[in-house]
Amino acid sequence: QVQLVESGGGPVQAGGSLRLSCAASGRTFSLMAMGWFRQAPGKEREFVAAIRWTGGSPVYADSVKGRFTISRDNAKNTMYLQMNSLKPEDTAVYYCAAMTGYGLGYREYEYDFWGQGTQVTVSS
Predict the structure, then answer these.
(1) Angle of CA points 76, 78, 83, to nearest 5°
(2) For residue 44, how many other CB atoms are within 10 A of its CB?
(3) Nearest 10 degrees: CA dihedral of 56, 5, 123, 107?
(4) Angle (CA) 94 67 98, round 5°
């Protein structure tokens, strides 16, 4: 129904920046919001940021507030995650997710579609 493709991950030194992209295709008219999650080695997948497709304030995990910025380009059906001041703790596989229902945005179970993930590795 909806396909999500992440891009932009890679290796980066601490303090550096990366911009992740997530392109949505398929039945994108059904989307209410999109978000980013990440899974670090040996840890559970955790919420990073989310944004409503039609507006409203984005939400962020406390661990990334002030450093990461989520944005969207409705015309391109694409959302972005600008990651600045990266820390080794940010090392993880980052996943794009899309929500078709109504939710708060930060709960994994709210999302219906997921991308394949893109690796971000931050060296100290």
Answers:
(1) 140
(2) 8
(3) 40
(4) 35
116: tokens are 């394949």
Give the pair of three-digit tokens for residue 76.
């391109």
Per DSSP, the residues of 84-116 read -S--GGG-EEEEEEEESS---S--GGG--EE--
* Residue of 38 and 53 predicted with greater confidence: 38
Q: Please give the full DSSP string across 1-28, using - where no structure is assigned.
A: -EEEEEE--EEEETT--EEEEEEEEESG
Residue 103 CB neighbours (<10 A): 15
Cα–Cα distance measured from residue 109 to residue 93, given in angstroms and rounded to the nearest whole number: 18
Return the structure tokens found at 12: 């980066």
Q: Which of 86, 102, 98, 105 is nearest to 6 (CA)?
A: 98
Q: 5, 23 in Cβ contact below 8 A?
A: yes
Tell me the mean pLDDT in the region 87-113: 94
pLDDT in tens, 14-33: 999 999 999 999 999 889 99
